[in-house]
Amino acid sequence: MNSNSYSREEIVEYYDKTQVHYERSWNLKKSFSLHYGIWDQSTQNFHEALENTNKTLFEAAEIKAGDAVLDAGCGVGGAAFYINSRCPESKVTGISLSSNQIKQANERLQSSGLENRLNFQVADFTDTPFEDESFDVVWACESVCHADNKADFLKEAYRLLKPGGRLVMFDFYLTPEGQKDPKGYINKWKQTWAISNYAAIDEFSNQLNELNYSDIQRINYTPKVVKSAKRMYRLYFLGVFFSNLYRLYNPKVSRFADSHYLCGKYQYLALKDNLWEYNLFTARKK
Question: Per the confidence metrics, is the pTM higher than 0.90?
């Protein structure tokens, strides 16, 4: 176990205590997204950038009519609704450790009339209740970073996929420089997000190979998330003021809510020092 590992309960605590920050800075009630946005020359605003992330995963997954999709770490359900908007004939199951997130996703679902196409439930993506070969696609966007042992997720995803099924993932991966972390930026960033460790690029690729995945591909999207990283960095400066003010009147503020604003600083400083990359991994079950 990693000496700084976080339990399932602590990960849930992080998301539940910091959701108000996402509502304010990520416009969560409109975007339903808790991930980085991808920017290109045609992107007009941050909301479009967030949608681009889902669009990129959707196209990489090659989702088609009749596909069963598992969103592993679904947050408040934004990706599931996006998948349905692009392919109404698919069926999407979203899982999260947070009962609060699942409650919000189900509240939106109940008013959407899509109960026969979407399903949300509390579950751990390293140990799910689903039968073998239940899904055509396993989708994970910035969620597997929370797994203490990434191979646990990859094994479970392989079990759940049908033969020929597709795994698609966006996440943060350490470069060789990031594995050394000379200034401690990565370590400090992890603590603000309840993350035990980030996977190293080569190590993650090797795990996919060892677990018998095929057609393994990696695309580096780091240049396209720089604007999102800079946006978080600017929010950090606002966070310094508001967090100190809030702490003054609320001395018992929770640890994650108290330090969350620091993520904007450390993720950006680490990015500037080329300590991490934002990569799309795709693979198939043989």
Answer: yes
> With the C-alpha atoms ordered 37, 282, 156, 85, is the resulting torsion angle positive or negative?
positive
Q: What is the CATH number of domain 8-285?
A: 3.40.50.150
The pLDDT tens digits for 136-189 are 999 999 999 999 999 999 999 999 999 999 999 999 999 999 999 999 999 999
> Would you kindly state where each structural domain of the chain is located, as residue ranges?
8-285
